[in-house]
Amino acid sequence: MALITYLVEDNQIVLDNLIEALQEIASVQVTGHGATQAEASRWLSAHDGEWHLAIVDLFLKEGNGLGVLAGCRNREPYQKVVVLTNYATPEIRRRATDLGADAVFDKSSELDDLFAYCAEQTAHEVAPGN
């Protein structure tokens, strides 16, 4: 079963490369993407229960990924939210985890870990009908 995924990323090159890699490496179906906190939060709320994974960058055109994370606190247990950032410092990792992130990955050194995480999530059974 495909992992229904929403991406929060404001860099079009990164977004395009991420979509391509995710679809090649794991059974991921990217269902949408947003470049601002408001856009991402609105989509995730409007599609509550319809997605399995949100991959969130911290620095966005407007707002930030921490705000997106905070808005996802009341998600279903099968819904995962991970942070993918260039600034995966210990402080950022702690703040993201405190806001409900299931994992934090560094864009420059942990992409393989992100892809492995996605592959692992597709191996788990998701909620019926999703």
Can you put this structure into words, describing what you see?
The protein is 41% helix and 21% strand. The chain has helices at 12-25, 37-46, 65-71, 90-98, 111-123; strands at residues 3-8, 28-34, 53-56, 80-85, 103-106. The chain has a five-stranded parallel beta sheet with strand order 2-1-3-4-5, with helices on both faces. It is globular and about 30 Å long.
Give a concise summary.
It contains five helices and five strands, in the order E-H-E-H-E-H-E-H-E-H. The protein has helices at residues 12-25, 37-46, 65-71, 90-98, 111-123; strands at residues 3-8, 28-34, 53-56, 80-85, 103-106.
Key features?
alpha/beta; Rossmann fold; 5 helices; disordered C terminus
Rough outline? globular
Number of helical stretches of at least 4 residues: 5
Gyration radius, rounded: 13 Å
CATH topology: Rossmann fold
CATH architecture: 3-Layer(aba) Sandwich
CATH level 1 class label: Alpha Beta
Q: How many strands, what sense, and barrel or not for the largest sheet? A: 5 strands, parallel
Task: Indicate the low-confidence ranges by residue numbers.
Answer: 125-130
Element order: H for helix, E for strand: EHEHEHEHEH
What percentage of amino acids are in beta strands? 15-25%
